[in-house]
Amino acid sequence: MANILQNGIFKIADDTILTPALLSEYITAHEKQVQETFMKLKQAYETDMEIFHQAPKASYKPDNRIAVNFAKYIVDTMNGFFMGIPIKLISDDKLVSAEIELLDKYNDQDDNNAELSKLCDIYGRGYEMYFTDEFGEIGITYLSPMDSFMIFDQSILERPKYFVRTYIDTNNIKHGSISDDTYVKWFTFNPDLKWDLDEKGNSVVYPHGFDGVPAVEFVENAERQGIFQPVLSDINAYNKAISEKANDVDYFADAYMKILGTKLEENDLTHIRENRIINFDGANDGSLVVDFMTKPNADATQENLINRLEKLVFMISMVANINDENFGTSSGIALKYKLQSMSNLAKTKERKFTSGMNQRYKLLFSNPVSGMNADDWTKVTYKFTRNYPANELEEAQIAGALSGIVSKETQLSVLSVVDDVQTEINQIEKEKADTATGYNSGSYSTDRTVPETQPTVNTDSNTGGTNGN
Question: What is the pTM of this model?
Answer without folding.
Answer: 0.79
